Structure formats: structure tokens, C-alpha cells
Automatic annotation (TrEMBL):
GO terms for biological process: lipid catabolic process. Residues 453-498 are annotated as: Disordered. Belongs to the bacterial phospholipase C family. This is phospholipase C.
Length: 684
């Protein structure tokens, strides 16, 4: 029986009445304008990170309005044939995403799933991404809805949700948290790395708090000490799920912190906390620091197991915990006006997410990169198979601050190292452990903010009274049964405002009739790097991955002799970018390229063939079609007005004379201003 009894729970929570997400302090502070001393990131004086446990993006937010979820109009098909949604068991049974039928699903103790290095690599299956059910089990496809987790959905509607935020590592908790706290998991082989599991043996590479300390930037870990933050107390991971830190303060697996003594910053800032066992409330220290205006410049919060949202604990226990963190941070409006809170999840547990993550090419046969990828591919060892370190699957990220209100979606590619990158951008302390490849493709989270924002409307959040744990017990896991007749769910109706991004990717194709080859040329644009996934509908040696740094380009060539003289290549890039190239080398002649021009897109038709090309251009958003005639040796430009699609486009070019010829251009034109989510997302 846990040592914390029910009667003490309200006291531990720091509350004297029922749990309320929207306390008077939150409502009051949410109505206050943000700090606008400079109108830039310099106005952020406090960064707080609450990293919860083990949920994928689709598992939580696949149904959410206006994000890339179940209604994604262009899911990848990296294995060829059907899209990633169509996962099958070993006996061929298909299981699509499904909503378990249990009552009050947000309060269920859902079963935990495999989420280690080996089963993660199995699910990825060298990038074909088609072995999730054999590797994880059928519960991998389970998801929750607004009715199950209303507080999480309300946070997304009130602030900013990131729908391209990935965990860093394909595997378990500790390596992902090492990425958050140090920029890698010892990938260079130094200091006891690389670490591919929850081994916790004691490591010696440099962590980011050490760099902050050297630079004079204040920092702190907020946690409960459990039975002691030492080896005897298992560093905070204890059997009483309502105390301790669940082992989620992974700094305590580094020798510098383990060997520290009182008076050392590594002890005082990372090995102290509340003492619930002896009468403290969970949030006493956080509330006191906020009230006294001594919240550090950078803080991390590690919740007790019961509130961590680990899959075998109720999501809404976590909702209550998050609401109390918000209540503490907003209890002093002057502090909240200068604070950015990031709420994310260390890894996906074993829950499926449909967006194939950016991956580095393992070899030249699997793609190319303009930047070194050696630190992001594990070559194998005596104990672990080779594989990708990451990126891992998408996980939820909620950006909660006075500068991120409005219910926006931010679709820039991020991972846990992006949290450090945001800290770098604000305080200038660089983390050299972050690999060049991750710096090339993952942003710094600044795009999730509008530092010019002066909106003072309050953000109203639902009440969490009903989420009080009914006892202090562990409960049996709930294992849902998939429906016998599966169908792909759709999303909530409506669009969502979208944060402006810096992407301007382009991919051009060209067929060489004489050589029997087809070449793709990739560029990410001048400002932001990009990762591309190439799949084939008529070859089995893919998929292939490509990374281009900002301002750089690369190309690769496919020999059509291996596919009966035809090519069928689809390219997926950031924020719904898609290019499709199908045809035969024997009839190669006219080619089409696409470029973003202002608020529109320009298609350029170049005919190097001997005959006149008459092509049909179809606009998927406006519904209009037109004919483009291109004489031999001629070039024709067509600029497409994108107002009908709100700067989203879906353009298809075909030829009546050559039915094999097919080009498709899908994406979004960025112009530095906010937009809306993809209107092609399928909704209820």
C-alpha cells in the first residue's frame, strides 16, 4: 500500500478544494499581456520544460482539428502499395487506428507496449515503416479523443500545438531524455555512450546544465525526492507511484550529479526537491519560487509516476498535474508574462504515429545528405543491432505562453534537441553535442511564438475536478480489442491558424531517354534545411532519404531498367510537401518544375522532345482544369493563383497522348505571415 493516503491528497496538491484547471490566478494571468520589452525572444526570461511520458502524436491528437492527423490527405507509402495506415499482423490481419470502447478512456490504465531499441528498429523496418503490429501489438493503433482528454485538447485550442515534433531516439525514456539534457545519447562513444536503453550505469559526457552553470545562467530541476535522490533511494524511482520522480530526472544517471555533495550546484539544483513523504505538497517549491520572483532562467519538471502520463497511468491524472503546474506558474502574473512553458513527451511508448520521421541515409544505396550523418546512424555492437538513432515518432508538444496563444499549429520539424536550441537562441549557450544532421533539419522552436503579440484575451481551460485519483493503488492494465471491421477515422471539422515557417523546398525531376534513368534534384531553400523521403510504386529497394542543408542542393538517379523502363517516385518533405513523378523513359520529352513565387506557385513546362506536348493541368483546390500546349524546344510558364487553397496547392499534370505521364505538386507557399492548416485534411 502506498504511503500517501487519500486524505492527504488535497494537501499534497497544494489545494484546499477540488482540483481546478482554471483557477482564478490562471484566468487573471491569461488576461495579462506578455512582456514586450523588445518584441523578440529576449522578452522570455524563464523557460520551463515539463516532459511527460510515452504518448505518440496520433495517439493523443490524431483527431484534433487542423493538424496533420488521421485526415492527412497524403500519407506516405514507404513499403510501396498501400499507405502507412494499413498495418498488418503476422497473419495478415489489418488493424487501422481505433478508439477503444472503455468508458472514461482518459482515466483508464491502458497497457504499456514494447518501446525499446530492438522493437523500435523492427517497427521502422529499414524505413518501410510497416512492422508496427508485429513489433508492438495491436494496442499500438489505439487513440484518444477530445471527449477522453478535454484538457489537452483545450490547451491546443488555447495556445500552440506542434504537429511535426518528434522524439529524438527510436526507443526508451532515458536516451530521449539524454537528448533533451545533453543533445545526444553519447553517440560519439565517449563518456560511457552510446546508451540505447534505460541502463543508468553512470556517464561522463557533458550535460547542458553544466554549460549553463559555466555561463552563469540559472537552472533547476523541480521534483519530489521520494525516498532520497541517491542510490539507496533509486534516484527517485520508487514503488510508491505518487511520490518521487519516476526516474525521469535523467541527469542523476551522470556521475557528476551522482557524486555531488550539498553545496555543489549539481546537488543543490538537481538532487533536491519536495518531500511529500514528510508533509510537503507537490508544488510547494515551484509556487514559492514563482511567488518570490526567483524562478530560474531555465527549469525542468519531473512528475511522480502516477502523473507522468505513462501509458499504464491515466492521461487525465497528467492533465490534473499539468493544470497545477500552470496554476503555480501563473500565480504571479509578472513572472508568467515572461515565461515560456513547453509540455512534451519523452517518447511514444509503442503507440503508432503515421508520419514517417526524417531519417539519415545509412548508406549511399539508401539516400544522400549534404551534411554528415555519422553521429545519427548506429553501426551495431555485440549487444545491439545496427539502426537509426532517430528521429523517433512524433510526440505531442504544447507551447504554452503569453506569446503562443490563439490555437495555432506550428508544423516545423522539431525534436528534443530543439528545446536546447531554443535555450541557445535565448541565452547564447551552445550545445556542441547536437549533431550537424539534427541542426540541419530540426528547428529551434522560435517559429511557435509571435513575440510581437499583444493579445490579452484570457485562455479558458476546462475544469479537472473529476481527475482526482480515486485511490493510491496500481490497477490492472486495460488491453483494448480492435474492431473486427476497421475503418480509418477522420478529424474534427474546421481549420486552425498556422504559424509562418521558413520552408521553401523544391524537387525537380528529369528523365534521360538514352540512359534510361530518372534524376531527382533536391533543395531545401535558402533559410531552412529539409529532409525528404522518396518512395517507389514499382521498386522494392526503397525507400530512400535525403537531407539538404539550407542553401544547398543534391541529386540522385534511378535506373529504370530495374522497373521495366518506367519510374514511379513520390517525394515527401516538410509540412505536407509532396511531389509525384511517374512515366516511361521511352516517351520522355516534356518536364515540369514548380517554384513558390510570392503568394502563388509558378509551373514551368520545358519541352525537349520532338513533338508538341498538350498537357492537362488540374487544380485540386479550385477544381479548375486547363490545357497547356508546349511546342518542341519551347518553355511555358504558368502562375497559379492560390487564393482558393489559402496558399495550399495540389496541382496535377497529365498527358492524353502518354497516359503514363503524371506529375503532381502539393504543398504550401510561405510568405512570412500566418496562414491556416491544410484545407485538404479529411474531417467528419
Amino acid at each position: 500500500m502506498p504511503e500517501v493516503n487519500r486524505r492527504r491528497f488535497l494537501q499534497l496538491a497544494g489545494a484546499t478544494t477540488a482540483f481546478s484547471a482554471l483557477s482564478a490566478s490562471i484566468e487573471r494571468a491569461a488576461a495579462l499581456p506578455a512582456n514586450h520589452r523588445s518584441g523578440s525572444i529576449e522578452d522570455v526570461e524563464h523557460i520551463v520544460v515539463l516532459m511527460q511520458e510515452n504518448r505518440s502524436f496520433d495517439h493523443y491528437f490524431g483527431k484534433l482539428r487542423g493538424v496533420r492527423g488521421f485526415g492527412d490527405p497524403h500519407p506516405a507509402a514507404p513499403a510501396g502499395g498501400r499507405s502507412v495506415w494499413h498495418q498488418t499482423t503476422e497473419d495478415g490481419t489489418e488493424v487501422l487506428p481505433f478508439h477503444p470502447q472503455a468508458d472514461d478512456l482518459g482515466m483508464q490504465f491502458l497497457e504499456g507496449l514494447p518501446h525499446g531499441w530492438s522493437d523500435g528498429q523492427d517497427a521502422y523496418h529499414d524505413g518501410t515503416y510497416d512492422r508496427w503490429l508485429p513489433a508492438k501489438g495491436t494496442t499500438t493503433m489505439a487513440y484518444l479523443t477530445r471527449e477522453d482528454i478535454p484538457f489537452h485538447y483545450a490547451l491546443a485550442d488555447a495556445f500552440t500545438v506542434c504537429d511535426a515534433y518528434h522524439c529524438s531516439f527510436i526507443g526508451s525514456t532515458d536516451p530521449n531524455r539524454y537528448y533533451m539534457w545533453s543533445g545526444h545519447t553519447g553517440n560519439d562513444g565517449k563518456g560511457g555512450g552510446p546508451v540505447l536503453g534505460n541502463d543508468e550505469l553512470g556517464y561522463d559526457w557533458t550535460t547542458y546544465p553544466e554549460r549553463l552553470e559555466e555561463a552563469g545562467i540559472s537552472w533547476k530541476i523541480y521534483q519530489d525526492i521520494g525516498d532520497g535522490l541517491d542510490a539507496a533511494g533509486h534516484w527517485g524511482w520508487i514503488s510508491d507511484a505518487y511520490r518521487g520522480n519516476y526516474g525521469d530526472n535523467s541527469l542523476l544517471y551522470f556521475n557528476k550529479y551522482r557524486n555531488a555533495r550539498p553545496g555543489d550546484p549539481w546537488y543543490d539544483k538537481a538532487r533536491t526537491g519536495t518531500d511529500v513523504k514528510n508533509g510537503d505538497g507537490y508544488f510547494d517549491r515551484l509556487r514559492a519560487d514563482v511567488a518570490a520572483d526567483r524562478l530560474p532562467q531555465i527549469s525542468w519538471i519531473a512528475a511522480p509516476e502516477a502523473f507522468s502520463e505513462h501509458s499504464n497511468w491515466p492521461s487525465n491524472y497528467g492533465a490534473w498535474y499539468i493544470s497545477q503546474v500552470l496554476d503555480a506558474l501563473t500565480s504571479n502574473p509578472e513572472v508568467w508574462a515572461k515565461t515560456a512553458l513547453f509540455i512534451t513527451y519523452d517518447e511514444n511508448d509503442g503507440f503508432f504515429d503515421h508520419v514517417v520521421p526524417p531519417l539519415p541515409p545509412k548508406s549511399a544505396a539508401q539516400g544522400r545528405s549534404t551534411v554528415d550523418v555519422s553521429l545519427d546512424v548506429f553501426e551495431g555492437s555485440a549487444t545491439h543491432r545496427e539502426g537509426f538513432y532517430g528521429l523517433g515518432p512524433r510526440v505531442p508538444m504544447l507551447v504554452v505562453s503569453p506569446w503562443s496563444k490563439g490555437g495555432y499549429v506550428c508544423s516545423e520539424t522539431f525534436d528534443h534537441t530543439s528545446l536546447i536550441r531554443f535555450m541557445e537562441s535565448r541565452f547564447g549557450v551552445r550545445e556542441p553535442n547536437i549533431s550537424p544532421w539534427r541542426r540541419a533539419i530540426c528547428g529551434d522552436l522560435t517559429s511557435a511564438f509571435d513575440f510581437s503579440r499583444k493579445d490579452s484575451r484570457p485562455a479558458r481551460l476546462p475544469d479537472t475536478d473529476a481527475y482526482e485519483p480515486q485511490d493510491r493503488e496500481r490497477h490492472p492494465d486495460y488491453r483494448p480489442t480492435p474492431p473486427a471491421d476497421p475503418s480509418l477515422p477522420r478529424q474534427e471539422r474546421g481549420l486552425r491558424p498556422a504559424r509562418p515557417l521558413k520552408y521553401a523546398p523544391a524537387v525537380d525531376g528529369s528523365a534521360d531517354r538514352e540512359a534510361g534513368t530518372f534524376t531527382l534534384a533536391f533543395t531545401a531553400g535558402a533559410v531552412a534545411g529539409a529532409a525528404f523521403l522518396v518512395t517507389s510504386g514499382n521498386r522494392t529497394d526503397g525507400p530512400w532519404t535525403y537531407t539538404t542543408e539550407a542553401g544547398k542542393a543534391l541529386s540522385d538517379t534511378w535506373n529504370s531498367a530495374y522497373s521495366d523502363g518506367t519510374y514511379d517516385l513520390t517525394v515527401h518533405g516538410p509540412n505536407g510537401f509532396v511531389r509525384v513523378f511517374r512515366g516511361t523513359n521511352a516517351t520522355a520529352g516534356c518536364e515540369v518544375t514548380a517554384r513558390h513565387i510570392g503568394d502563388d506557385i509558378r509551373l514551368t513546362f520545358v519541352n525537349e522532345g520532338a513533338g508538341t506536348a498538350r498537357l492537362r493541368l488540374a487544380d485540386g483546390h479550385s477544381g479548375r482544369t486547363s490545357t497547356v500546349t508546349v511546342r518542341p524546344g519551347a518553355t511555358v510558364d504558368r502562375t497559379i493563383d492560390l487564393r482558393a487553397g489559402r496558399r495550399w496547392y495540389d496541382l496535377t499534370v497529365t498527358s492524353a497522348a502518354d497516359t503514363s505521364f503524371h506529375r503532381r505538386f502539393v504543398g504550401h507557399v510561405e510568405n512570412g505571415r500566418p496562414g491556416v492548416s491544410d484545407p485538404a485534411i479529411a474531417t467528419d
